[in-house]
């Protein structure tokens, strides 16, 4: 270092650097927030049914066995794309019926298969759950999971 690198210069680099990176941090935070609110979240189709369905999902702790978009427990299948597995994007009515049928038929009692409890949900609750799973299935996960079964 030359003698030109003074205490004042060091201080200026410190303050200048701090300010620059703080401003960058604020700008990136604003950018992320803007993306989450306007692009990442499909707010327009966030109906009351979707919200109620999420509450059914939470109240019954489906996440204790299932994953949703990869988060959760690994005992039972991923449900972020179960709506597509049930063909809901092509025939929503049949997918709701399939979900009702599935929920009503548990536990299957089939030997060698993992069992899912009976939750005794009402028809309205399962319809809300379907709305929630349908909404979730449209989240852009950049083609994850790679397999429909995953
Ligand atoms: C105690 C663990 C457990 C909990 C809690 C649980 N499940 Fe399951 N679930 C399972 C298992 C195990 C399977 C797979 C059973 C099979 O393949 O025979 C399954 C399968 C499913 C399937 C079919 C998936 C497919 O790919 O066909 C759906 C839909 C489902 N569960 C929905 C739910 C919902 C909604 C809740 C909450 C209300 C819930 N599950 C809570 C264990 C659980």
UniProtKB/TrEMBL annotation:
SUPFAM superfamilies in the record: Cytochrome c
Residue intervals passing through the bilayer: 12-31
Pfam families given in the database record: Cytochrom_C
The UniProt record lists the keyword Transmembrane helix: yes
Keywords: Heme, Iron, Membrane, Metal-binding, Oxidoreductase, Plasmid, Transmembrane, Transmembrane helix
Keyword Transmembrane found: yes
Domain of life: Bacteria
The protein's name in its UniProt record: Nitric oxide reductase (NOR), small subunit
């Amino acid at each position: 270092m030359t003698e030109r690198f003074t205490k004042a210069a060091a201080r200026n680099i410190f303050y200048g650097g701090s300010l620059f990176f703080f401003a960058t941090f604020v700008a990136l935070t604003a950018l992320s927030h803007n993306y989450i609110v306007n692009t990442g979240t499909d707010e327009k189709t966030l109906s009351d049914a979707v919200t109620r369905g999420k509450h059914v999902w939470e109240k019954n702790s489906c996440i204790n066995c299932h994953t949703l978009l990869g988060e959760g427990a690994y005992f039972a299948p991923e449900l972020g794309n179960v709506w597509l597995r049930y063909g809901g994007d092509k025939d929503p009515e049949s997918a709701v019926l399939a979900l009702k049928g599935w929920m009503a038929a548990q536990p299957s009692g089939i030997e060698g298969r993992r069992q899912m409890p009976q939750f005794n949900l009402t028809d309205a609750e399962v319809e809300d759950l379907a709305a929630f799973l349908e909404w979730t299935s449209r989240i852009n996960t950049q083609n994850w999971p790679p397999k429909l079964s995953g």
